[in-house]
Design a protein that fits this description.
Elements lengths: L4 E7 L2 E9 L5 E9 L12 H9 L7 H11 L3 E6 L3 E9 L3 H13 L5 H17 L4 H13 L13 H6 L2 H11 L5 E7 L3 H12 L13 E2 L6 E5 L4 E9 L5 H17 L5 H9 L6 E7 L3 E11 L3 H18 L3 H14 L7 H13 L6 H11 L2 H9 L8 E6 L1
Parallel strand pairs: 2-6, 7-11, 8-12
Antiparallel strand pairs: 1-2, 3-5, 3-6, 4-5, 9-11, 9-12, 10-11
Helix pairs in contact: 1-7, 3-8, 9-14, 10-11
Length: 413
Amino acid sequence: MFGADLSKMEVNGVEVPVIYEQSSIIPTGAIQLIFSRSGSAYNGEIQGLSYLSSLLLNEGTKELGGVKFASLLEEKAISLHVSSSQEFLEIDLSFLKEQEEEALKLLAMLLQSPNLTEKALSKVKQQAISSLLAKKNDYDYLASVGLSQLLFKNTPLQFPSNGNPAAIKAISLNQVKSYIAHAISLKRLTLVVGGDLDIQSTLSKLNPLLSKLPLGEQSEFKSYSANAQTQSKVQYKPTEQAYIYFGAPFMLKDYKSEAYKAKVMSFILGASGFGSRMMEEIRVKNGLAYSAYMRINLSKLATYASGYLQTKIANQDQSIKLVKQVVKEFVEDGVTQEELDSAKKFLLGSEPLRSETLSQRLSTAFGNYYLGLDLDYQKQELQKIEALSLEELNDFIKSHKEILDLSFSIVTK
């Protein structure tokens, strides 16, 4: 039977959580070092710091540099990659079973002597700035960032996690070193281990290299509410289409007891593509957009509703008016039994597809752990969805009038 388990391993007196699943289907192994509360939402005033630091950590070791270190990885078919998000800094290591020792050796080299040099920093700054400048003509990106500025003004979530060119240019090597010293520490670490491995043996091999990490300290957890004041932001660009992003607050009292209702609500309102209210009204009945989407976003950092559509500039005002109308009628009238039955059928039927691979199962298990849920919470969620009544769902929908407080970010001509 597939399924992840949870244990702890002690490293220098710190109990590090370990989520693991042994699977011998393919002779490979995977190890993730996930450092929580180390992403862009925890950068303080320095935009793009965690993102730039993750790029620098992909530049190999000080002794070998990026090219030689990458060659060593390639020779052994080992993948070692560092990434960052709003909440986490993550080191992902994957390898053939026979290369486990070599993979752990290279991970140890990276952790002990990352290429924190001015030369490497200059290189990744150029990469980051070039990527950001290219986004100036990505109108979806601009509209999305504009929405974040409306919903999360005066919070770290108003900024893109990869920063902006001026902020990236100003980051110093000392700031990167300080960030890495705090972020990559035992008290922030969760291990996720899976594959055709002897899990206990792998953990024993990991212990010596992890013991060289600083103890560190877990930073204070942060949570933000979306702005309830309805606002609009318009950016004018040489475009033939209007890019319309919209969002509103969504208050979730308790994840464990309410998230499954929000999932069904989100699916019917706009997250399911064809058949959803948003798509049916915007595209099918009125032909205003090729695609229209809206969903409920649930994370520890923030819960909120968001959506988007792209339409002809001549249809811009009509599309915005229709989005407001669809959401209003949805909250006031709720859903039909047919819509609920259809949502249940899809959500219950497609769940096996979301847990087909080991990486999917481990990712889901970690997400559940981080939210304070049982690792197999999905099974409980499916049972709750199956038992959900129309009256119960509609009462839930009607209690969330805050999603009527829609703000719009528009890129237009």
